[in-house]
Design a protein that fits this description.
By secondary structure, this protein is an alpha+beta fold. The protein is built from three helices and four strands. Helices cover 39% and strands 23% of the residues.
């Protein structure tokens, strides 16, 4: 669980990042989960974009991604979800 200060720091770090995954009309797939896990291991902090055609709400998608990837949801901004999962690389030093 992230504190407010840690979330603020991660939001500022994620500001310049682009979304590297898109969730479409079929929702979250197993292959997307595997790709997101690999990306989190490599980068620790990623953005996921939810397309307008997605049948699930953004909160449902965020909860599902969080549970299946064991990552923390830093922020849901519009249709973009910011996920953080610490790795052995320690790219981001949380305050």
């Amino acid at each position: 669980m992230l504190t407010g200060k840690q979330k603020r720091y991660l939001r500022s770090e994620a500001h310049h990042l682009s979304a590297i995954f898109q969730i479409g009309k079929d929702g979250v797939h197993r292959s997307q989960i595997e790709g997101i896990i690999d990306a989190l291991d490599a980068k620790e902090l990623i953005k996921v974009k939810i397309l307008e055609s997605c049948s699930q709400s953004k909160n449902e998608v965020a909860l599902e991604l969080s549970m299946k990837t064991k990552a923390d949801v830093v922020q849901i901004l519009g249709r973009t979800i910011i996920l953080y999962k610490p790795s052995d690389k320690e790219i981001y030093r949380l305050p």
